[in-house]
């Protein structure tokens, strides 16, 4: 069953699911694919959407129409115009990654290359199996956003196996500084700089009592590595502007649902603005504050992180940090393409992209649509 609640168009989700079926060998090499109605019933989609997905697969050379018989799986030499396929492996398709995958697919298609998508659900063992399976199935390269379990937190060294593969791999969104040392190219958004700019944006607009929600999904978990960098960015911005951190227990995302009293203490303290490490929690806080009669942005301003599509559709719309997902995907594809074409190892690259603030209603005080006044973070360099 293909989930409909996704930022990726439904026909592309169906296309990716059929690609996974092909990679698993469900139809066999040259085997006949079930008809469009049968696939639609199996995947929980309408026939027209399945037909569109099948048309794209045929255009990419993965499927061929056989007169009076049906649709068959192409031979390996036909698929992707002889260029094979790239494996794309991400933790989830529910948050952050749909637009990244979409852009990767567009970039790959423009090069005559197809992709096969798999999700790990942040399971390291599953990730390793999927990578090995992709190599065995003939992938020419791997684009991977590593699984990042929270308990225990994964170490960068657990990714060294990627450097030992027989095909190139590029990491997306994690461990930019360690990637080259591990023998892996990588592209990442600068989390420290993003949080620094988010906090500075609020300071420039007159807010002084600024609190931060850390990224820890439940009590007892270790902070996420990206969350640690974002926390440091917030703290650095506050220190650079001689502002005092709240003398209150730290806030985490899970507090909104499970410990709202902790949030209320900040409201009673007189908090003027909240800085978040992701957008979904920012949306939840707006609803919680509304129940207390606290209006956003009239009483408290909010800025999220990741610039998810839904930020344009909340009430109020949510100011957020844009991490450059499209550019991240394009850079990753270029790194992989260069590595495949050169056939060389060594001189691994880490590309770090600079985020920017997209201002909307939740930060108040008549912000411009995009914060163009951002200055370089002191002592910090990004691409």
Throw out a few tags for this protein:
six-stranded parallel beta sheet; alpha/beta; single chain; 383 residues; Rossmann fold; 12 helices; six-stranded mixed beta sheet; Arc Repressor Mutant, subunit A; 37% helix; 16% strand; 15 strands
H/E element string?
HEHHEEEHEHEEHEHEHEHHEHEEHEE
CATH first level of the domain at 192-323 and 356-363: which class? Alpha Beta
Report the sheet with the most strands, covering strand number, pairing sense and barrel closure. 6 strands, parallel
By CATH, the architecture of the domain at 192-323 and 356-363 is named 3-Layer(aba) Sandwich
How would you write the strand order of the largest sheet? 5-4-6-7-8-14
Share of helical residues: 25-40%
Ordered list of secondary-structure elements with their pairings:
Blueprint lengths: L9 H14 L8 E2 L2 H8 L3 H13 L3 E4 L3 E4 L11 E6 L6 H14 L3 E6 L4 H13 L2 E6 L24 E4 L6 H4 L2 E5 L1 H14 L5 E5 L10 H16 L10 E2 L2 H4 L1 H10 L3 E3 L3 H13 L9 E5 L13 E4 L2 H18 L7 E4 L2 E3 L25
Parallel strand pairs: 4-5, 4-6, 6-7, 7-8, 8-14, 9-10, 9-11, 11-12, 12-13
Antiparallel strand pairs: 1-3, 2-3, 13-15
Explain this structure to me?
The chain is α/β, with parallel strands linked by helices and 383 residues long. It is built from twelve helices and 15 strands. Among the domains are: 80 residues, Winged helix-like DNA-binding domain superfamily/Winged helix DNA-binding domain (Arc Repressor Mutant, subunit A), CATH 1.10.10; 140 residues, 3-Layer(aba) Sandwich (Rossmann fold). A six-stranded parallel β-sheet has the order 5-4-6-7-8-14, sandwiched between helices. A six-stranded mixed β-sheet has the order 10-9-11-12-13-15, sandwiched between helices. The chain has a three-stranded antiparallel β-sheet with strand order 1-3-2. About 3% of the residues have low confidence.
């Amino acid at each position: 069953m293909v989930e409909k609640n996704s930022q990726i168009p439904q026909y592309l989700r169906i296309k990716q699911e059929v690609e996974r079926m092909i990679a698993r060998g469900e139809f066999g090499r040259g085997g006949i694919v079930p008809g469009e109605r049968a696939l639609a019933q199996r995947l929980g989609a309408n026939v027209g959407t399945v037909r569109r997905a099948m048309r794209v697969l045929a255009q990419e050379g993965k499927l061929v129409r056989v007169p009076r018989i049906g649709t068959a799986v192409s031979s390996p030499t036909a698929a992707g115009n002889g260029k094979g396929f790239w494996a794309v492996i991400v933790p989830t398709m529910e948050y952050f990654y749909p637009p990244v995958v979409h852009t990767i697919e567009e970039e790959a298609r423009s090069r005559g290359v197809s992709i096969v998508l798999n999700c790990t659900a942040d399971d390291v063992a599953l990730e390793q199996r999927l990578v090995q399976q992709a190599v065995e199935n003939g992938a020419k390269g791997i684009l991977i956003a590593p699984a990042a379990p929270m308990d225990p937190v994964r170490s960068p060294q657990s990714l060294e196996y990627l450097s030992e593969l027989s095909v190139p791999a590029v990491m997306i969104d994690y461990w930019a500084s360690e990637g080259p040392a591990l023998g892996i190219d990588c592209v990442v958004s600068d989390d420290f700089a993003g949080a620094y700019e988010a906090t500075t944006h609020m300071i420039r607009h007159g807010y002084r009592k600024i609190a931060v929600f850390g990224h820890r999904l439940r009590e007892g978990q270790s902070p996420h590595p990206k969350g640690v960098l974002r926390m440091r960015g917030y703290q650095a911005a506050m220190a650079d502007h001689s502002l005092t951190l709240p003398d209150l227990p730290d806030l985490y995302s899970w507090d909104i649902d499970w410990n709202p009293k902790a949030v209320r203490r900040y409201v009673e303290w007189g908090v003027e603005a909240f800085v978040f490490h992701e957008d979904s929690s920012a949306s939840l806080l707006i609803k919680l504050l509304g129940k207390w009669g606290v209006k956003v942005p009239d009483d408290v301003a909010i800025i999220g992180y990741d610039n998810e599509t839904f930020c344009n559709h909340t009430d109020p719309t949510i100011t957020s940090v844009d991490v450059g997902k499209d550019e991240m995907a394009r850079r990753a594809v270029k790194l992989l393409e260069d590595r495949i074409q050169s056939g060389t190892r060594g001189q691994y690259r880490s590309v770090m992209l600079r985020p920017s603030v997209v201002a909307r209603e939740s930060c108040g005080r008549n912000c411009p649509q995009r914060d163009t006044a951002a200055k370089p973070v002191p002592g910090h360099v990004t691409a």
